[in-house]
Specification:
The complex is a heterodimer of chains A (298) and B (322). By secondary structure, chain A is mainly α. In chain A, 70% of the residues lie in helices and 2% in strands. Classes of the chains: A mainly alpha (298), B mainly alpha (322).
Chain lengths: 298, 322
Amino acid sequence: MLDWLHIAVPPAPALFGQLLIGLINGAFYAMLSLGLAVIFGLLNIINFAHGAQYMLGAFCAYLILNYLGIGYWPSLLVAPIVVGIFGMLLERFFIRWVYRLDHLYGLLLTFGMALIIQGVFRQYYGSAGQPYSIPDLLAGGQDLGFMFLPNYRAWVIVASTVFCFGTWFVIERTRLGAYLRAATENPALVQAFGINVPRMVTLTYGFGVALAALAGVLAAPIYQVSPLMGSNLIIVVFAVVVIGGMGSILGSIVGGFALGIVEGLTKVFYPEASSTVIFVIMAIVLLVKPAGLFGRAA
Amino acid sequence: MNESATIRTVRRLVLLIIALVVPFVFYPIFLMKAVCFALFAAAFNLLIGFAGLLSFGHAAFFGSASYVTAYAAKTWGFTPLPAILAGTAVAGIMGVVFGWLAIRRKGIYFAMVTLALSQMVYFYALESKYTGGEDGIQPVPLRDVFGVIDLNQPLTMYYFVLAICLLGFGIIYRAIHSPFGEVLRAIRDNEPRAISLGYKTDRYKLLAFTLSATLAGLAGATKALVFQLASLTDVTWQMSGDVVLMTLIGGLGTIWGPVVGAFISITMENYLAELGSWVTVIQGTIFVVCVLVFRRGVVGEIVHFINRRQRRPRLAEEPRTL
């Protein structure tokens, strides 16, 4: 009776399959745009190296597995810490010098850093991807009847949601987060209250970078580990950030997931547009609400 | 004609003569590439240096014009001039649309919006059936200009390219030294003030964006003929980054900075080609160095040095950073 529906609606497994892929992509958009928003909030810098730092996270996991035999689970902790410390060094020795300049210099500086990091890794590992296998615990999957759900993908969605909302909780609901938000509003005043703002800035940058690296480790078994894995992704994330507006932590999380899903659905209904749909949405948002959906007018 | 105007005329003549004789010393193909990129960078600089808008997506205009020109010449059999015109016109139209969207935001958001829009163009070029995918459009046939000028001669081609690019530079020079250019500078330095003086700043910004995009397109269109090739490289974000770098090395907001920067960058690319990915690392390092310690760029530093020695701040020509 409802046969005619099958012309318009694709078979359920394909639909849910793409929805899942969209949700996974959305998880990475959310984690990366969250990191960008946290960094931007305090440093007023758009971290162009975010994609490269995401790649560093994946590579860190890959390298410590192959040279030190450290597996996936410890990597989830080790890689973000290592890459986060690297980020803090970058902040301390380079980025710090451009705070007093026009914000565009921060963008150019971190763009240069991204080129350096990606160039070095491409020199040693080429452009091809290195495989990183799924941890044994999460191998296999569940047959949900309407679709097959690989365990690892389910884990990525759960884990990224937890990390994102954990970050949101720390920033919006704890004392530490209150200091952070205060320093975003008025760093001089917060400094006058005896809080070491420069150190807070360094730690915040390190945290944002660590979040990118964590996303990289989560991504390693799904996408292959390659030097350029973050370079196109970061541009999509920029579009996500423009759509969501940088003012809101929650906005970047929700926006990231939502846009991933939209992208997945586009792949089902109009595949030709799937790689550009987020940019089109960005254009529409700019027309309707230039400050971004969750943003405050600048 | 006062003294400084005479000096300026002489200086221009000398530069023109140099431009005319260099192909006897250096490879014309290298020079043509450098001249095209110099125009590209100068067009980009019109926006960042004089209107204070950092576009991180200028490759979209450069590359699209290059594709349209190549397609028109190859598939429709256009002769070089109409082909270049077609490419430039498309870049101009895209400039209107992208500019109209992008000027709604400022600063880094503007940069991110232009970058995202250009990435859309990249994906279109990657998947469209008109662009030849990874292969691009090649070889682009070179028909005679006006039925007599044979562009297959490298020297003839060089003078043809030089003429087109000089036309482009002339337009940029006029724009900067016109009341329009003054208004742009006023907007760059203090937009609320320009608004309060009654200027419709959005219109000026859109006009500057369109002009910049059109001239970037002119550079891309010419480049397609020089290499007889339009490829994906021209629309990538790396290309957008390249043009930012050229302008930064030469000096933001200076007339000659982009030209000098383009020559330095192309020369470097030429000599470092065999180093593979280290080129990217070197480019990144130059970005970092320029931002941290060398914000005026080569030409900017020279002008600054001369001004300081003469102890007369000529405000109009004092190079500024953002």
